[in-house]
Amino acid sequence: MDALKRDDWLVGGVSLLLAIDLLFLPWFSFYVFSVSGTDAPDGWAGILAVLASLAVLGDLLVERLSPQTTLPNFGGSRTATRFRLSVVAAVFVAIKFVFNIHFSYFGVGFWAGVILTAVLVFVTYRLSQDRPVLNIASS
């Protein structure tokens, strides 16, 4: 675990939280029942967002914990690949939103998912530009 830096923990944690949010938290609340981000309507978009989010986590873990393993990259580096995967997750979250716009039905999982998706894209973008996520000295 010494191979993981603070930024790695941030990317991994946010991508895992997004997958958990999509799978288990209520995205839509209809009077007496709630559904998650992977349930109907348009559950396929939620499932693809989960897969993209877990791909970000998997890519990070393979790079850090098994550096001898070579994986294909898109954009010239592993960090650019993770950024592109996070954009894919964001696109599917956006599709889920656009296909189901009705603000009175959105549950806590939806709002948390929007925030987590934005954070994941921001963090992976900063890292793909070789810039630290936060300019805080690590201890």
Task: Chart the SSEs and their pairings.
Blueprint lengths: L5 H19 L3 E3 L2 E3 L7 H23 L12 H21 L9 H21 L11
Antiparallel strand pairs: 1-2
Helix pairs in contact: 1-2, 1-4, 2-3, 3-4
Describe the structure.
- By secondary structure, the protein is mainly α.
- The mean pLDDT is about 90.
- Helix content is about 60%, strand content about 5%.
- Strand 1 (about 30) and strand 2 form a beta hairpin.
- The protein is built from four helices and two strands, in the order H-E-E-H-H-H.
- Strands 1-2 form a two-stranded antiparallel sheet.
- It has helices spanning about 5-25, 45-65, 80-100, 110-130; strands at about 30, 35.
- The protein has one domain (about 5-30, about 40-130).
- The relative contact order is 0.19.
Alpha plus pi helix count: 4
β-strand amount: under 5%
Cα radius of gyration in angstroms: 16 Å
Structural class: mainly alpha
Structural domain count = 1
- Overall pLDDT metric: 90
Task: Summarize the model shown.
The chain is mostly helical and 139 residues long. It contains four helices and two strands. A two-stranded antiparallel sheet has the order 1-2.
Q: Can you give keywords for this protein?
A:
60% helix, 139 residues, mainly alpha
